[in-house]
Design goal:
The chain is mainly beta. The protein contains 1 helix and 8 strands; from the N terminus they run ββαββββββ.
């Protein structure tokens, strides 16, 4: 059994962003939510078209999310994600954001 003091448990803030159809949006977790995403769920709500996403800026590869699919990314530190939704549906991004020290 692990004994943790309440002050040792990081505060996580739930965040949800819905990106409308035919939209490109970059989410900067430090600028918009004052922390980094430690867990991320990307859901393509478009049943016709794929969506794409890119984590960490232009130097990282662009990944594809199939129609109606989702991708879960856990136990990481994500500062930036760029999402391009398909023309027939939205993309939903849900994150657990760990606030920067001093913002608890």
């Amino acid at each position: 059994m692990v004994n943790e003091v309440k002050s040792q448990i990081p505060i996580l803030s739930p965040v949800m962003v819905v990106i409308p159809a035919s939209t490109t949006q970059t989410i900067s977790f430090p600028n918009e939510y004052l922390g980094r995403a430690v867990s991320l769920l990307i859901s393509n709500l478009d049943a016709t078209n794929v969506a794409t996403y890119q984590i960490g800026g232009n130097s990282m590869p662009t990944l594809t999310l199939s129609t109606g699919a989702f991708r879960s990314i856990d136990d990481t530190n994500i500062s930036l994600i760029k999402v391009v939704s398909g023309s027939a549906g939205a993309v939903q991004v849900e994150a657990q954001v760990q606030l920067f020290a001093g913002l608890k």
